[in-house]
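Z., the sequence and structure:
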Amino acid sequence: MQNLNQRIQQFYDHSTQLWLDTWGEHMHHGYYGPKGDQRKDRLHAQVDLIHEVLKWGNIQQVYRLLDAGCGVGGSARHLAQLYGAEALGVTLSPVQVERGRQYNVRAGLQERVGIRVQDVMTLQPADGPFDLIWSLESAEHVADKKGLLALFYDLLQPGGKFLMVTWCHRPTPPVLSSSEQALLEKIYRWYHLPPMISIEHFNELATEVGFQQVKTADWSAAVAPFWNAVIRSALSLRSIQGLIRSGLPTIKGAWAMQYMNKGFRKGIIKFGLMQGQKP
């Protein structure tokens, strides 16, 4: 039986090309404003998310950054260009690494942006130090949440900061009901996720590992139109043909979009942000 990392790798190896063909190099939610303005162009919304997270984190300058769970490196390239920084991105998917390196060459960033196949949890302090760790919709794939935050702490230089955007479940208490848990289990199954935690729990863990100035936010409303936009794009003839070519794992992921959409609508799934600074 495949372990979690193998399932994640297979999912992204199969689905990445379809995503790139339909949406481009930014493999994450879009930012539609505090009230979720559905009129915003979806690709514009994805770039806006990066800038809004940077603004929220009050990031003024970056010299060396880690993109933890980088996909094809869309954020790493964007940040490298924005700040004139060097970037390292890691992903479990060889397909994403190959495509990301092609994007790097196309952007003339192959000397400043590195992308490699690696489990983020196997990074060592010698891979750093970084003054920014960027984790955009990847932490939900990691089972050991506290271990991930402790790793970030070790990889950062003193005064360095992490910015994390991750899928969470709603705050507890009250405890998750059986119907809420059943919906989450479907999402865990189809998107190859260990159990989620709340953003409040993330806050506690970040403080426990030593981060200071820890802040969290819930941007669920600001990204709510995203899944409807993805579902609409998936119904195009080109996307349907791409789904068929991508194979069963991607088809299952497309089927599961309905559960993510329902989770957001019912307030079970939350789009959480967190930042913290190493003293």
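The longest strand covers residues 156-169. The beta strands are 64-68, 86-91, 113-117, 130-136, 156-169, 212-218, 269-277.

Let me know what you think.
H.
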